[in-house]
Model the fold of this input.
Amino acid sequence: MTENLIKLKPSELYEILAESNESPYRIRQIHKWIWGKSSNNINSFSDLPKGFREFMAKKYHIERAEISSVVHSVDGAIKFLIKFENLDQVEAVFIPEEGRNTVCVSSQVGCPLKCTFCATGSLGYRRNLGFFEILEQVRIVRDYVKTRITNVVFMGMGEPLLNYSEVVEAARILNDSSTFGVGSRKITISTSGIIPGIRKLENEPEQFKLAVSLNSAVQGKREKLMPVAKKFPLEELKKVLMEYYEKKRRWITFEYILIPEVNDSHEDLEALIDYTNAIPSKLNLIPYNPHPYATFRAPTDQEIEYFLKKLRRYIKRAVTLRKSKGQDIQGACGQLAYFVKSKE
Ligand code: SAH
Ligand code: SF4
Done:
């Protein structure tokens, strides 16, 4: 049995190259064929020396993830259900916008954190994805839409900072011009606030963008919405985010899902303003996207307008409104929940 070449980390390729007296720059050549050109035939890696290519083809093969289904939204978003070797499935979403093409990727099969408003969280957790399974999502989407991918957001299924090393490995390869060439500043890692992960990320040389799902700046309320907040409380999170900013000099993006009667009171607004004003950040307001796994309702246009107007008056920095694309195909933020359905 030969091994699947796409599973080899750069460090493993490095070892193999060293043993064959080949230069490490060949890692990028191999990546160009695997990720840049989607080649499935090691013998066609034409810029590798013939002998080395033949040696590799004897020991390795290439096996890809597959598309299980594709659903097109009326607004241009496309949702992909992607199946891996062991039959686990995750969702990835293509979001075309003026001047950019974003892929929203999953980092885990399900999510262990069980935020009450999130479809993924309400359905449980199976496992972390490997770096190559994250890259496969972007590759499959790129090849399907036949356009260059300019942005990648880790906002699909799962908590990326609970799968730290695979996520960062994938982000690094995405960034390489021989593969996808997505700028590091255009790769967003969105977290529910996993403090050890944020601390590690601040020491990485790349300028990946950090987004933090806040959803409430009131500790007790945040704990109810996001149980992980008990472990990583708001005050400690604030300190860590300040340190992150000091080190990286990059603004943090806070995400706040607006859920009527849950986190839209006067007290919620004041807490949110105080919290975000203390940290160099931008705030992204996301109207709650309804789905069958929670009983919350979506805010009306008036409710969104009211909250947004108040925020814009009192928040020092930028406040944006994100109208998620793909709602009609259950492909918007927090609506991804396919894998359990497939088990039933
Ligand atoms: N686990 C990470 C990344 C995946 S969740 C995180 O929590 O940040 C991606 C985004 O979807 C988060 O910002 C989350 O707050 C948001 N989200 C979850 N459920 C949602 C819903 N029902 N409506 C709108 N946004 C939702
Ligand atoms: Fe997990 Fe993020 Fe969903 Fe929370 S919002 S359950 S952390 S995917």
